[in-house]
Design a protein that fits this description.
By secondary structure, the chain is mainly β.
């Protein structure tokens, strides 16, 4: 038996795992998204059975959701554009029985609004009368 350093064995294993992930079939998960108007939140649900929780990569931006979730010989992938902006830093996600559920509050459209000061005076205009 040839002895190998542990680092070399890990390197081989990591390369094999990376190759296996690259060769997996990519599938769009069944997805449901709806507005919970009572709680002013967006709810998105992804059916990703078989994906271990620690392999799920979920990224949320104010205008989109990105999901990658390896499971057995497939990888669930999804990129969803959102119709209304959300607050990604307030998102909550739960995963149970193959269903990933994300709840995120909508951003108030006036949240970043700036009040503009209106000055009085300025350019004076003359009214011109046009005779018919």
């Amino acid at each position: 038996m040839v002895s190998r350093p542990v680092e070399l064995i890990w390197e081989i294993t990591a390369k094999e795992v990376a190759r296996m992930i690259e060769n997996r079939i990519r599938i769009a998960p069944s997805t449901v998204a709806y507005a919970d108007t009572e709680r002013n939140k967006l709810v998105v649900e992804f059916a990703i059975p078989g994906a271990p929780t620690d392999t799920i990569d979920l990224k949320l931006l104010p205008d989109s959701i990105h999901l990658t979730a390896p499971a057995r010989d497939i990888v669930y992938v999804s990129a969803q554009a959102l119709a209304w902006p959300v607050k990604p830093d307030k998102a909550e996600a739960t995963y149970a029985n193959g269903l990933l559920r994300i709840e995120v509050p909508f951003k108030d459209p006036m949240e970043d609004a700036v009040t503009v000061v209106i000055k009085t005076g300025g350019a004076k205009t003359k009214t011109k009368r046009i005779e018919a």
